[in-house]
Amino acid sequence: MSADGFESHYSATDFQNHCQVLRQRIEDQLTTCTQYGDEVPPRLAAAIRHSLFAPAKRLRPLLVLMACEACGYEMEAALPAAAAVEFIHTYSLIHDDLPAMDDDELRRGRPTCHVAFDEATAILAGDAMLAQAFEIVATNCPSWALPGCLAELARAAGPGNLVGGQYDDLNPTVLEQSLTSLERIHRRKTGALIKVSLRMGGLIGRASAEQLATLERYGDCLGLAFQIVDDLLDLGGDETKMGKKTRKDSEAGKMTYPGLLGEEASWQRAASLIAEARQAAATFGPRGAHLEALARYVLERNH
Ligand code: GRG
User: Fold this and answer.
1) What is the position in ligand 1's atom list of the atom closest to the CA of 95?
2) pTM for the complete prediction?
3) In this predicted structure, which of 78-87, 169-178, 229-238, 242-251 has the lowest mean pLDDT?
4) I need a surface site. Which of 14, 104, 224, 274 has the fewest CB within 10 A?
5) What distance in angstroms lies between residue 89's CA and the mean position of ligand 1's atoms?
6) Atom of ligand 1 nearest to the CA of 56
7) Distance (Å, rounded) from C-alpha 189 to C-alpha 187?
8) Rounded distance, CA 206 to CA 73, Å?
9) 56-100 pLDDT, tens per residue?
10) Which band of pLDDT confidence, cut at 50, 70 and 90, is reported for residue 241?
């Protein structure tokens, strides 16, 4: 039993080792997905690989695999969905970094796609990755999960979630300076992809309705906590470890959790969300141990 009262099934080292094994499987799947033929312009392929294979945590694909595992199903079946969600996440980072949006020069420790290549190439690399994500799911997802995965992934990436959340984040109004509107933005901009990762893993893992609801609750808490920690790291994190410019949001006067709640209360809110996520993971018994450990990592991460 750990100091905070939760039973720990794995040591931190065991968990890190397990994540390394899963990450290698994810990298292999991403490599397979980027074996392009002559019809793909080489420079476009290079731009996609530049952003996709820069050092990244692979949080969302890990969630797909761990959710499938929590339901007791062979996680191999979830690898294509795991790759697809990383394609969509990477596309969103490439477009977010463009001059028309966040205008960033550093991402994942590398020059952003439009800096390393050019703006048109970065836009097209993102467009290509979004479309390819659906091809990956459509052609590789187990039949029982296919309609659900396609529809839910499209909804998470669409105007009511990822794109809508990004839109509101870019167009804040004075009226929106409240915790409710901040959480509304983040549930869509960051939370939706995290939640759909868990739901796709569950659908592929033949989860019951009750298990899917638990994964969703876990995802809700994890997604918000992830964003709060992101805001806190943006304020006090190490730029080299983060692989991107920090303090940008606070300097630009953007609405952030520490800005609205203060640092101490933000850490407390993140910790209580993570405790709730861990309780949800614990209902899967030992098979939920990796999800439980991952939630702990989200609170303790430094990049
Ligand atoms: C362009 C439609 C569109 C959406 C962009 C990704 C995004 C939405 C905005 C990025 C702004 C930001 C810093 C959001 C905070 C949460 C987040 C998505 C962080 C980056 O994800 P990580 O930490 O990164 O999982 P890695 O590189 O490890 O994958």
Assistant:
1) 1
2) 0.93
3) 242-251
4) 14
5) 7
6) 28
7) 6
8) 7
9) 999 999 999 999 999 999 999 999 999 999 999 999 999 999 999
10) low
Instruction: Write the DSSP string, 145-170.
Output: GHHHHHHHHHHHHSTTTHHHHHHHHH
Q: Which residues line ligand 1 (CB under 6 A)?
A: 56-57, 59, 89, 92-93, 95-96, 108, 162-163, 166, 189-190, 227, 230
CA distance 138 to 131: 11
Query: Which residue, chain included where needed, has tokens 């960051």?
Result: 190
